[in-house]
Design goal:
three-stranded antiparallel sheet, alpha+beta, 109 residues, 26% helix, two-stranded antiparallel sheet
């Protein structure tokens, strides 16, 4: 990130699967001063704590065999919903402020 300049009042988003933090640069390009502008926290317990039903069963119509149906991953569904919520909030900011945001990512290791 050497040489990255954050203009005054620019927004930085730091996020993972369960938390998101919007930081605003109250300083200038030379001396940034990042302050929290908006915080998102997602209470997303594991799937085993969210669903109480057993996985379903399917009966094959051509025989008397039954097959199991994969259990719904409620934890993953909530992570996706949370990411959509944060993305929608970021999109509203960009539209309201008529800003273009640089995108910096770091891959998970």
């Amino acid at each position: 990130m050497h040489g990255l300049k954050l203009p005054h009042n620019s927004l930085v988003l730091v996020a993972d699967g369960g938390r998101a933090l919007f930081l605003r640069n109250d300083g200038d390009e030379l001396f940034p001063n990042l302050t929290a502008a908006c915080v998102f926290n997602d209470n997303n317990p594991p799937t085993r704590d969210q669903g109480s039903d057993r996985p379903g069963r399917v009966y094959d119509s051509s025989s008397s065999r039954r097959s199991g149906v994969e259990q719904t991953d409620w934890h993953l569904i909530e992570k996706e919903r949370f990411a959509e919520e944060v993305a929608a909030s970021l999109e509203k900011y960009v539209e309201r402020e008529n800003e273009q945001l640089p995108l910096l990512t770091q891959s998970a290791s």
